[in-house]
Write a structure and sequence with these properties.
The protein is built from twelve helices and 25 strands. The protein has about 575 residues and is an alpha+beta fold. The strands form five sheets. Strands 1-2-4-3-11-14-12-13 form an eight-stranded mixed sheet, with helices on both faces. A six-stranded antiparallel sheet has the order 8-7-9-6-16-15, with no helix packed on it. Strands 17, 18, 19, 21 and 23 form a five-stranded antiparallel sheet that branches. Helix 7 links the parallel strand 12 and strand 13. The longest helix has 18 residues. It is elongated, with a radius of gyration of 27 Å.
């Protein structure tokens, strides 16, 4: 059997093109078919597959599962590398049983071998390819389905033939930018004290609907209509209320494929949504304060926060309290809220790459303000870091060009792909390892339900009394988060007994509902751990079913539920 190291396309050290990503996934699936299956959730408008890797013993068997995705925002390419890093670590659990994976003890490594991992390393392959090949900014997908647009707008393209579409600057006495005197080429917001020359900055490209005079203001989504992370059904709002919403929830093939898979797999308990950049984990609630959150849910997130802090160094923050761009105005239709609110998952978004921390910038009270509350001094520090630690990749030189519409401009100047939007290559291995260590511990929290059958007792006249104990040995209860119990699809567990030549007299028809099974975990600061009052919560993680059976033969026992799949056991009755 080939080793994992020999099969790697070295995704921990570089960002992958679509064909390289496809090669890596197919290589793993071909080498380890017993624990790894590759499928496609659909195709993009440009014909690329939406690859999904399923890893675990008997990959098709339904059981408690977790999900990882990356690169739903096109420029956030390193999410793919981190997702693949988690996949490789999980494959190592199966192919190298004695290997030290993520610092996990042997009993947790064994438990993880029965967890099913769904890994979608690149939700927007069309967008990622556009960013890698052209350098242009793409929020999510490189398309615009709005048809004829009456308003004048920029269309990003390579105007000077160098193969990239970056930015343009043009001297303008009313311009809002000025060149740094400390770092030539660096553009800074204009101050009252500045004497000029002044510049306007635009995306590299052409003006559609050019009238010879009007220069439109480029939008955050540029020439792309939807933002995939505003296109999910929970709390969706139309475009005039939420920029990037799309035409309707799930209007895009990429988001719709994720929605349909999630709905078809209620056994997904945990969901990691990988983004860049900032170095932070963003958890629910996204629409309200923590005091409105189910307390036991919050305790679980506190436990996860302890792991993410230890292994990644990134803080975990409330989406509503620290990550709304306008305080009190939630982001609508995002994926992690859909996973938490509608699919009952422990979900959160991870913004990979702690650039601000690397540069030593101050920490504002609300984490999201780190992106926008940057004075000129902080911008210069970022540019100095790029020069000294990143080989100047983010600030290439400006080159003069005569634009057919705008006249004399300069092209180039800013390429944030490798160092700002994504970490430098040398940082990727450490980032992949840290996030994997944290997430594998979350995956190890899943419920582990078993059926134990006692020695049958003969009652005479061909009758048997069989006592079955159903027990959850896992951290999480069989229903998952307490807040997820409200969902109608989160049904209680059903116990069934049958066998050829056997008649199950009790319970009737060999079927009985046993409710849900609690787990042993309580999260962090979830109660019961105080030295002055140490108490367990009874035996709510167990159920006892007593069977009365007539006949001889093999008695088949089955426990099933939408979140745990099927758990089975057998015993011979003489």
């Amino acid at each position: 059997m080939p080793t994992l190291d020999s099969l790697s396309v070295h995704f921990r050290n570089r960002l992958l093109y679509y064909h390289e990503l496809t090669e890596q996934l197919r290589t793993w699936a071909d080498a380890y078919p017993e624990v790894c299956a590759l499928s496609s959730l659909g195709q993009t408008p440009e014909g690329r597959e939406l690859w999904l890797l399923t890893i675990g013993r008997e990959p098709e068997r339904k059981r408690p599962s977790v999900w990882v995705d990356g690169n739903m925002h096109a420029v956030e390419l390193s999410g793919t590398s981190v997702a693949l890093g988690i996949a490789e670590d999980v494959l190592r659990l199966h192919t190298e049983p004695d290997a030290d994976v993520a610092g996990l003890p042997p009993h947790l490594r064994e438990a993880l071998r029965d967890v099913r991992f769904f890994i979608m390393p690149r939700i927007s392959p069309d967008g990622a390819e556009a960013v890698l090949t052209t350098g242009r900014y793409v929020r999510s997908v490189p398309r615009d389905a709005r048809g004829d647009r009456n308003e004048t707008h920029f269309v990003c393209s390579d105007v000077d033939g160098d193969g990239l579409s970056l930015v343009m600057r043009r001297q303008d006495p009313a311009g809002d930018f000025v060149e740094s005197s400390e770092l030539p080429g660096l553009m800074l917001p204009r101050r009252l004290e500045d004497e000029g020359p002044f510049y306007a900055i635009y995306p590299e490209g052409f003006v559609e609907g050019w009238d010879g005079h009007t220069v439109p203001a480029p939008g955050f989504l540029s020439d792309n209509e939807p933002d995939l992370n505003r296109n999910f059904p929970y709390d969706w709002r139309p475009e005039h209320e939420q920029m990037g919403a799309g035409r309707y929830p799930g209007s895009e093939p990429e988001s719709r494929a994720v929605i349909e898979h999630a709905v078809a797999h209620p056994e997904i308990f945990a969901w990691l949504n990988l983004h860049t950049f900032g170095g932070v984990h963003i958890r629910p609630l996204g629409h309200s304060e923590d005091n409105k959150m189910e307390p036991s849910d919050l305790a679980l997130y506190r436990q996860i926060e302890a792991w993410t802090d230890e292994f990644t160094g990134y803080p975990m923050v409330s989406g509503f309290e620290q990550f709304t761009y306008e305080p009190g105005k939630p982001l609508r239709g995002d994926l992690s809220e859909f996973a938490y609110e509608q699919r009952g998952c422990i979900s959160w978004a991870c913004e990979i790459w702690d650039l601000f921390e690397q540069v030593g910038l101050p920490k504002p009270k609300r984490f999201v303000d780190r992106y926008t509350h940057l004075d000129r001094e902080e911008l210069i520090k970022l540019a100095e870091w790029d020069r000294d630690e990143n080989d100047g990749k983010c600030l290439p030189p400006w080159r003069p060009f005569t634009h057919p519409q705008l006249g004399e401009v300069e092209v180039g100047g800013l390429d944030p792909r490798f160092g700002l939007w994504n970490p430098p290559r040398g940082k990727l291995p450490e980032i992949c390892a840290g996030i994997s260590k944290a997430y594998l511990r979350v995956a190890a929290m899943l419920p582990r339900v078993e059926i134990t059958v006692g020695e049958p007792e003969s009652l005479g006249d061909g009758l048997h009394r069989v006592v079955c104990t159903i027990q959850n040995h896992g951290y999480l209860p069989s229903y998952g988060l307490a807040s997820s119990k409200k969902h109608t699809w989160n049904e209680e567990l059903l116990f069934e007994a049958s066998g050829d030549g056997l008649e199950v007299l009790s319970p009737s028809f060999g079927r009985t509902h046993v409710g849900h099974l609690e787990g042993w975990g309580r999260g962090r600061f979830g109660g019961g751990a105080a030295l002055y009052f140490l108490r367990s919560r009874g035996n709510a993680q167990s159920r006892r079913v007593v069977l009365t059976v007539r006949g001889r033969g093999r008695l088949k026992l089955r426990l099933r539920g939408p979140r745990i799949g099927d758990v089975s056991a057998e015993i011979e009755l003489e």
